[in-house]
Design goal:
The structure is a homodimer of 328-residue chains. Chain A has 328 residues and is α/β, with parallel strands linked by helices. Chain A has helices at residues 14-23, 78-86, 101-115, 129-140, 156-163, 179-186, 195-198, 213-221, 239-245, 278-298, 320-326, and strands at residues 5-10, 29-36, 52-54, 67-70, 90-93, 118-121, 144-150, 153-154, 168-177, 199-207, 231-236, 251-261, 265-275, 303-306. The longest helix of chain A is centred in the C-terminal third of the chain and has 21 residues, at 278-298. In chain A, 49% of the residues are buried. Strand 13 of chain A pairs antiparallel with strand 13 (265-275) of chain B, so a sheet runs across the interface.
Chain lengths: 328, 328
C-alpha cells in the first residue's frame, strides 16, 4: 500500500532534525525531501536516501509533497516563508511570537486560501499544547484564573545576554518555575503573580582568564529587562563542565487553571511538560499536526488554522472507531 | 439580543444540579427547562422561574430547546434515553461505561442521523478530558507508555460494598493514587503497573453498636474483586465524623505519557485534576460541550461524536480570532 503521507522539511536546524527523527516513529508518513538555504551538497542529514534540495526550487515539488513542515525561526524566516509556502503547500509551522499571531495568521490565511491549501500555524507546546490547555481551563471553569509557568528550561535569549557581559567566556541560563509560586497556585488560593514572581533565573558562567567574578555577577543580576526584576543565581563553572553538563536542551512548564464551581467547590486543572529535548518535542508535535493538516485538506478544508481549531482525533493514525474503543 | 443557546436538563440529580449551576456562569446560554421522571410538582430546583416538566412530555419541546443535556446514569438511564432523545434533540451525555462505548455510540449515532441532530457522548473527565490527554500523549510521543491514575476520590461502588458488610452502619471509600507509583512514572522509568499497584484504598467506617471491629476490617480487606488485591486501610469513625468530614464528592487523577524522542530524550506529558466536587466538574465539562454541539449543528454536522472529534475552540464563547489573540 503506497499511501503514506509525503512530508518534506523546509529548514534543517535542531527543529528540522527533530522532525526527521519523529517521522521515523510515524508508520503512516514518509520523508520525501529536505529543503535548505545552505548548499544542499554540503548538508549531511541523518536519513539515508532522502534527497536534499535548495529551498528556492521548492515550487517544483508541489505535486510530490503532501505537507511541508516549516522548521525556520519565527523572527526572520517564518514571516516571509510562511505566507509564501502556504500558497503552494499544505504547511505546519511553529511560529511563536505571541504578539504577532493575528498579523501572521492573516498573511498565511490569505496565501493558503489563494492556493487552496491548509496551513496550521503556531504548533508546538507554547504556543500549542499550552494554548489548548489555557482554552480548556477557561471554557470549562469560567470562574477562575489561569497560570502559565515555564521551565526548567534553557533560554536562548537570556543565555546570549549573559555571554555579552565583559569577562564571560561562555554561559547558559535556565528559567525555573518558583516552587513557592507553584505551591500557592496548586493550593487554589489564586494569588496575583507577575511573571518575575513565578520564575527564578539560574546562570552557569565560564569566566575569561583574569575576569573578576564579583563584577560579572553584579553585571548579570542588575541587567535591566533580563535579570534585574528576577531572583537570579550565578554559578561559575569550568569550560569542561559547561560542555559536559549543559549541552542538552531541556524545557517544560505548567498551565494551571484554578476555578470554582457551584457555591464554593475548588477545582484545579493542570497540564505539565518535562522535556528532555525542547526541539525534539516541538518537532513531534509538528509531525502529529502535519497528519491533521493532510486529513483536513482531504476533507475539503482550506485556509490557516491553529491547534485550537483542530479536533484531537485528527492527530492520531488510528480511526475514530479505534480511538473510541481504545482511548475514550 | 435574544440569541442565547437554549439548554434543557434531563434528569435532576447531583449532575443535573451541577449543570444548572454551571449554566449560571455561561453568558451565552440559558436554562429553559428541567425534565424529570419524578413528580414535577414536587421537584425543588435551584433556579427561580425555570419550568419543570415530566420527562415523558419532552417531545413537545423539540423546537424550544437547542441542546438537551442528559444527566441520567450510565447503567440504567442512558442506554435507553441516549438513543431516544438523540433522535429528537442535540444532546450531550456523560456515558462512562468504557467497555460499552462502541455499542452505545452506534445506537446514538443511528438515532441522531435519523433525526438530523448532533449527539456528543461520553463527556466529562474520564471518559472525556483524560481520553483527550491519552490521545495527545500517544499521537505526539508514539514511543512510550500511558498511565492513568484515579483519585483521591470517593468511589460509590466500593463505598456501597463496604456498607453491605455485617456490622457496618455507614462508610465511605476513597481510591488514592499510590505516591510511589506516581513517582516511578514521573521519573520516566516506564514501569509495568497493574491498576492495583497504582492505587490504594482507604475506608472510613462507622460500626453498628456491638460490632467487632477486627471482624469488620478483615471482611473488608479480604473482599474479592473490591479489596483483596489492593493495599487497603480501614479507619473507624463516628457517625458525626462521617457526616461532618465525608459529605463532599472530591475526585481527580492524572494521565501521564512517558515517551522517548530522538535517540534517547526522555519526554513527560502530564495532565491532572484535583476536584472539590466531581459532579460539578463533570457538569461544567458537559456545559462547554453543549456549546460545541450547538455550533457543530449550526455548521451542518449530524450524528454521534465524542470529545475526541471536537476542536478545542468550539468549547469557548470567544471567537476563533479572539482565542488566537488571547490564548494562543
Amino acid at each position: 500500500m503506497n499511501s503514506k503521507i509525503r512530508i518534506a522539511i523546509a529548514g534543517y536546524g535542531n527543529l528540522g532534525r527533530g522532525v526527521e527523527s519523529a517521522l521515523d516513529r510515524a508508520p503512516d508518513m514518509e520523508l520525501v525531501g529536505v529543503f535548505t538555504r545552505r548548499d544542499p551538497g554540503k548538508l549531511i542529514i541523518q536519513s539515508t536516501g532522502v534527497p536534499v534540495y535548495p529551498l528556492d526550487r521548492v515550487a517544483e515539488f508541489v505535486d510530490a509533497v503532501d505537507v511541508l513542515i516549516l522548521c525556520g525561526g519565527s523572527k526572520a524566516d517564518l514571516p516571509e516563508q510562511g505566507p509564501q509556502l502556504a500558497a503552494l503547500f499544505n504547511t505546519v509551522d511553529s511560529f511563536d511570537t505571541h504578539a504577532k499571531v493575528p498579523e501572521y495568521f492573516a498573511a498565511v490565511d490569505a496565501a493558503a486560501q489563494s492556493g487552496q491549501r491548509v496551513a496550521v500555524i503556531s504548533v508546538g507546546w507554547d504556543p500549542g499544547l499550552f494554548s489548548i490547555n489555557r482554552l480548556y481551563g477557561e471554557a470549562i471553569l469560567p470562574e477562575g484564573a489561569t497560570y502559565t509557568f515555564w521551565g526548567k528550561g534553557l533560554s536562548q535569549g537570556h543565555s546570549d545576554a549573559v555571554r555579552r557581559v565583559p569577562g564571560v567566556a561562555g554561559a547558559v541560563q535556565y528559567t525555573i518555575p518558583s516552587p513557592e509560586a507553584i505551591e500557592k497556585v496548586r493550593s487554589g488560593t489564586r494569588p496575583v503573580l507577575e511573571t518575575r514572581e513565578k520564575h527564578v533565573r539560574e546562570c552557569h558562567v565560564v569566566l575569561e582568564a583574569g575576569a573578576d567574578a564579583n563584577a560579572v555577577r553584579e553585571a548579570i543580576v542588575t541587567m535591566p529587562d533580563y535579570f534585574a526584576d528576577y531572583d537570579t543565581t550565578v554559578n561559575f563553572i569550568t569550560a569542561q563542565e559547561l560542555a559536559r553538563d549543559h549541552g542538552a536542551m531541556p524545557h517544560g512548564g505548567f498551565v494551571i487553571r484554578s476555578g470554582t464551581t457551584g457555591t464554593d467547590s475548588a477545582q484545579i486543572m493542570e497540564f505539565g511538560l518535562k522535556l528532555g529535548s525542547n526541539p525534539e518535542f516541538t518537532a513531534s508535535v509538528l509531525v502529529a499536526y502535519a497528519r491533521a493538516a493532510y486529513r483536513l485538506r482531504q476533507q475539503g478544508a482550506v485556509g490557516a488554522m491553529s491547534v485550537l481549531d483542530i479536533a484531537p482525533g485528527l492527530l492520531s493514525p488510528k480511526s475514530a472507531a479505534e480511538l473510541r474503543k481504545e482511548l475514550l
